[in-house]
């Protein structure tokens, strides 16, 4: 950073610093380098790598690529198209802290899902009866029993007392009935592998169970950190008042949107960044509206989850979803349109500093239906 400041100082010479504007183009919007450049007072423009690649093709078609050439492309983009590039958001330190813990929390959840799928595939190859016996491979009782009896022969020797103990530890209901059903499934005939192969699979299964167990513990612990950081943010009350948003999901939405009050000038701008609003493609007499496939995966995942949850908690959201379905939209399309509407509601609440109100949020759509 000191070398950069020196270089810029040499280029500006005796010009008054107040009259100097330094623009920085960079293919990321996070990290210590970006924070240092922003703190120095430079205008930092985050350039999507896809934009840079397309701009590079305008300057040459040979396909040549180098770091120096990429730097030249970024500098040229900033010089000629600064008005069309997005400045790095001025999020607060609290929002950055929420982003760190919320993203790590979600990453661990995704990792747990991946390991559960690996566990499922392994069981299908050598112990298909376990998939019949256990509906939820991520459940505490399932992991406990599989760790205790990872081979078909060992599982067949499990007693109802051992199975019942695991079910009680997981606080299951109808323990006796479920224990009998699990024991019957584990002792049923099924396609199997040779003993030596089953033993090898059992070792891999126990390793996967150990990883999943650790991930579950860390996810639970980190969720407390997510909720604690989110609860300290000034906008937490407004965001948590939205239908379908709890502390953990609200933290993810806040983390991905950021809290820069000047970043989204309109609800449309927030919807475009969210990836919930459609894009229009028109050529001649043909004009179609399509879903956006270029978006923030973490944000769209949180918003779609919110929309699905809102169907149970908000009558207005449910009615809006049903109207989209009545028009012929499938489930995913109707859910994305609901998510788009909820983003607009969230934007209005944040701009006005007001909590969510069911009647106000859906009054316009209710009026249209009545009319």
Can you characterise this structure?
With 371 residues, the chain is mainly alpha-helical. The protein has three domains: 87 residues, no CATH class; 136 residues; 120 residues, no CATH class. It contains 18 helices and five strands. The N and C termini lie far apart (62 Å). The mean pLDDT is 89.
Summarize the structure.
The chain has 371 residues and is mostly helical. It contains 18 helices and five strands. 26% of the residues are buried.
Percentage of β-strand residues: 5-15%
Query: How many domains would you count in the coordinates?
Result: 3
Spatial strand arrangement across the major sheet: 1-2-3
Shape: globular
Per DSSP E runs of 2 or more residues, the count of β-strands stands at 5
As an assembly, this protein is single chain
Q: How many helices does DSSP assign? A: 18
Largest sheet: 3 strands, mixed
Taking all residues together, what is the mean pLDDT? 89
Distance between the termini: 62 Å
- What level of helicity do the residues show? 55-70%
Query: Which residue ranges are poorly predicted, with pLDDT under 50 across at least 5 consecutive positions?
Result: none
Element pattern in H and E: HEHEHHEHHHHHHHHHHEEHHHH
Domain Transposase IS110-like N-terminal: 18-128
Protein name: IS110 family transposase
Domain Transposase IS116/IS110/IS902 C-terminal: 237-321
Organism: Amycolatopsis acididurans
